[in-house]
Design goal:
The complex is a heterodimer.
Chain A lengths: L3 E4 L2 E4 L5 E7 L5 E7 L5 E9 L2 E4 L6 E3 L9 E3 L8 E8 L9 E2 L3 E5 L1
Parallel strand pairs in A: 2-11
Antiparallel strand pairs in A: 1-3, 3-8, 4-5, 4-9, 5-6, 7-8, 9-10, 9-11
Chain B lengths: L3 E4 L2 E5 L4 E7 L5 E7 L5 E7 L5 E4 L2 E5 L5 E6 L8 E8 L4 E2 L3 E6 L1
Parallel strand pairs in B: 2-11
Antiparallel strand pairs in B: 1-3, 3-8, 4-5, 4-9, 6-7, 7-8, 9-10, 9-11
Classes of the chains: A mainly beta, B mainly beta.
Chain lengths: ~110, ~110
C-alpha cells in the first residue's frame, strides 16, 4: 500500500534538546511538506520541498530545520531555538507543488516538550 | 496574504440532521480542497474543486465552489456519528493555505 508514514506517533523531550521527526513516503511524489497544528489555529506551513536537495521556508520556519536527501524522506528537526515546540506535526506529500495538486497526509506526530 | 475563513467554528447536531460548513477566501481561488480529520490523526482528502460553479458529491457529502471562486460550502445530508471530526478547507491562488477548521459533533 502506498502512503506516508510518520514516526513516532508520540514523542517526549526535555526543553533544550533537539528532536527529529521522521516522514517517509512511497507515493513517488516530488513535493513534501511539514505542517504544525495547534488548537484553534488550523495548520501552518513550516517547510516544504519541491524536489530532492531543495527546500523552502514556510510561514513559521524559525526554530526548525529540514533536509531532503532522498525523494522518499523529509525529516524535520525541532531545535532548541523553537520557543513553543509542543504541538501536533503533520507531514504531507503531493505529486507536485502548487495549488493544483492535492496533498496526502501522514498520521502525525504529537511532540511534547517539558 | 491570502486567508481562508471557515464558519461556523464548531457545530453540534443531532444524528440525521443536515448541516453546511462554509469556507470564504479573501482572494480568488485557483483550487479548493476539503479534508476531514479525526482528533489526533492525519487529514483525509474529501474533495477538490477548481471550476467556478463546480459541485461534487461523495456519499452524503456535497461540496460547491461559487462562480467567483471565493467561497465554498460543504453540505452533509442526514448526518451520522461517523461524520464527526474536524473539517478543514485548503486553497489558494499562488500557494495553498488552510482555514482554521470546523469541529463537528454528531450526537446519536
Amino acid at each position: 500500500d502506498g502512503g506516508i508514514t510518520q514516526s513516532p506517533k508520540y514523542l517526549f523531550r526535555k526543553e533544550g534538546q533537539n528532536v527529529t521527526l521522521s516522514c517517509e513516503q512511497n507515493l513517488n511524489h516530488d513535493a513534501m511538506y511539514w505542517y504544525r497544528q495547534d488548537p484553534g489555529q488550523g495548520l501552518r506551513l513550516i517547510y516544504y520541498s519541491q524536489i530532492v536537495n531543495d527546500f523552502q521556508k514556510g510561514d513559521i520556519a524559525e526554530g526548525y530545520s529540514v533536509s531532503r536527501e532522498k525523494k522518499e524522506s523529509f525529516p524535520l528537526t525541532v531545535t532548541s531555538a523553537q520557543k513553543n515546540p509542543t504541538a501536533f506535526y503533520l507531514c504531507a506529500s503531493s505529486i507536485s507543488s502548487g495549488p493544483g495538486y492535492e496533498q496526502y497526509f501522514g498520521p502525525g506526530t504529537r511532540l511534547t516538550v517539558t | 496574504s491570502q486567508e481562508l475563513e471557515q464558519s461556523p467554528q464548531s457545530l453540534i447536531v443531532q444524528e440525521g440532521k443536515n448541516l453546511t460548513i462554509n469556507c470564504t477566501s479573501s482572494k480568488t481561488l485557483y483550487g479548493l480542497y476539503w479534508y476531514k480529520q479525526k482528533y489526533g490523526e492525519g487529514l483525509i482528502f474529501l474533495m477538490m474543486l477548481q471550476k467556478g460553479g463546480e459541485e461534487k458529491s461523495h456519499e452524503k457529502i456535497t461540496a460547491k465552489l461559487d462562480e467567483k471562486k471565493q467561497q465554498s460550502s460543504l453540505h452533509i445530508t442526514a448526518s451520522q456519528p461517523s461524520h464527526a471530526g474536524i473539517y478543514l478547507c485548503q486553497g489558494g491562488s499562488e500557494k495553498l493555505v488552510f482555514g482554521k477548521g470546523m469541529k463537528l459533533t454528531v450526537n446519536p
